[in-house]
Design goal:
Blueprint: H1 12-30, H2 37-45, H3 69-78, H4 82-89, H5 102-107, H6 113-125, H7 133-141, H8 149-158, H9 160-166, H10 185-195, H11 201-232, H12 235-264, H13 269-278, H14 280-283, H15 287-318, H16 326-329, H17 333-343, H18 347-350, H19 353-371, H20 379-395, H21 415-430
Helix pairs in contact: 3-4, 6-7, 7-8, 10-11, 11-12, 12-13, 13-15, 15-17, 17-19, 17-20, 19-21, 20-21
Keywords: Repeat, TPR repeat
GO molecular function: intraciliary transport particle B binding
């Protein structure tokens, strides 16, 4: 473990104490018990506001207690507080841009991914580098928003020794990584599967399923251990099993998301929903799982709505006049009215004497049922009706309700005038 103590400033006793504090902070970080002690030492011994030259990366940086601010930045990064993480990195000892470590690259990946990739590649080509550099570079290459699978494959081919050292063996971190647990063989297999997504989706699906099944079995076993420890009141066993479960879940979630994405890209949203349903008992409380399930339901609902709207529009325009409002005759008023409104969009093209004649019959039937207190509508339905009638008023000023030549009296009625009359009726009913 790297010492982070200013040897020239403190005496032997204080040196030992600060080393212990620093090492303890690192251990607490690995255990996800985030303590502020090391930060207090950094603020006490290194006051901000003094202009300094670059200290480089070694040995001056290692001799500065401010390197501990990297821990605080890591904590904020893992917790999703990116701005605070960036601010904490500014408290590090002064260095020029080319001396900044991989954390700076990760902090700015969303803003400037090109610079981040360049920095990570530079570190990889110039050892020694942080042990998590290779894993972070590969994972970022394989991130769906980037999709640089060919580049990831090239990196793996060029750095076989590094892969064996850092991916196929257990390692520990003292700085930021995209995976908070130890990177093992499973991470190597996961990255390989992601790289094969475009060229061999069938093999990817099979291998991903094997990984998912392996973790699901482990998590179910841990669930039983958690339950047993609760019954036996074994607090230490409960904490250990719970920590292992949370770590396994962080591996399991990306695997499930990768499997779901295979079908999402094919627009097979039903299968995506099925995959999420099968994993619900293990990760239904995870925010990433919930977010993706919400996206899937939204896409399924949109597809269903588009299909229903298209079918309703075709039926409305082509069915017999006597069957223009069967939904309303069956008392399915809210759904029927919404389909009628949708079928007339865009109003500027479809609103004419013939279509308006049958549409207004539906609205008059609805007014009749409301006046007799046979049904009750939701406020949202009233709002849709008001919006439609306002649009008809705006678009129907030159659309006459009779196909005969317009003139004085009866034939002077327009869609705009009748839409205002209908709206007055609905407003009267709501009084």
């Amino acid at each position: 473990m790297v010492s982070c103590v200013p040897r020239r400033i403190v005496g032997t006793s204080k040196l030992v104490q600060l080393e212990l504090t620093c090492n303890r902070a690192v251990c607490l970080y690995r255990l996800k018990h985030y303590g502020p002690e090391i930060l207090e030492h950094g603020v006490r011994y290194h006051v901000e506001g003094i202009e300094l030259c670059s200290v480089g990366n070694s040995p001056a940086l290692k001799e500065s207690v401010l390197v501990a601010f990297n821990l605080k930045a890591a904590i904020d990064y893992v917790n999703g507080n990116l701005e605070a993480a960036k601010e904490n990195l500014t408290d590090m000892p002064p260095r020029v841009e080319e001396e900044l470590d991989s954390d700076q690259a990760l902090m700015n990946m969303e803003v400037d991914p090109t610079a981040g990739f360049r920095k990570l590649n530079f570190l990889l080509q110039n050892p020694p580098f942080p042990s998590e550099t290779l894993a972070n570079l590969l994972l970022l290459y394989c991130k769906p928003s980037h999709g640089f699978y060919d580049l990831a494959a090239d990196v793996m081919a060029e750095h076989a020794e590094v892969i064996f050292k850092y991916l196929l063996k257990h390692i520990n971190f003292t700085s930021i990584s995209l995976f908070t647990s130890n990177i093992m063989q499973d991470l190597y297999d996961f990255i390989n599967c992601i790289i094969l997504t475009k060229t061999s989706p069938e093999d990817t699906y099979q291998k991903m399923n094997e990984l998912a099944n392996r973790y699901s079995e482990t998590m179910r076993r841990l669930t039983k251990q958690i339950q047993d420890s609760c019954l036996s009141r074994d607090q230490e066993g409960h904490k250990k099993a719970l920590a292992e479960y949370e770590d396994s879940l962080e591996y399991y979630i990306p695997i499930i998301m990768a499997i779901a994405k295979l079908f999402w890209d094919k627009e097979n949203y039903v299968q995506v929903e099925r995959i999420f349903h099968q994993s619900a008992d293990l990760c239904s409380d995870h925010p990433v799982w919930r977010l993706n399930v919400a996206h899937t339901f939204s896409r399924l609902k949109k597809r269903k709505r588009e299909r229903t709207t298209r079918q309703a529009g075709i039926a409305f325009m082509h069915c017999k006049p006597c069957d223009r409002y069967p939904l309303l005759r069956k008392q399915i008023f809210e759904f029927g009215i919404s389909r009628i409104i949708r079928s007339l969009e865009p109003y500027g093209k479809k609103l004419e004497a013939d279509t308006w004649f049958y549409a207004k019959r539906c609205f008059l039937a609805l007014v009749d049922s409301l006046a007799k207190q046979m049904i009750v509508l939701k406020n949202a339905t009233y709002a849709d009706i008001d919006d439609f009638l306002d649009a008809a008023d705006s678009q129907g000023k030159t659309v006459y309700t009779s196909v005969e030549s317009p003139g004085e009296g009866h034939n002077s009625n327009t869609v705009s005038r009748e839409a205002r009359l209908l709206k007055r009726m609905f407003l009267k009913i709501r009084e």
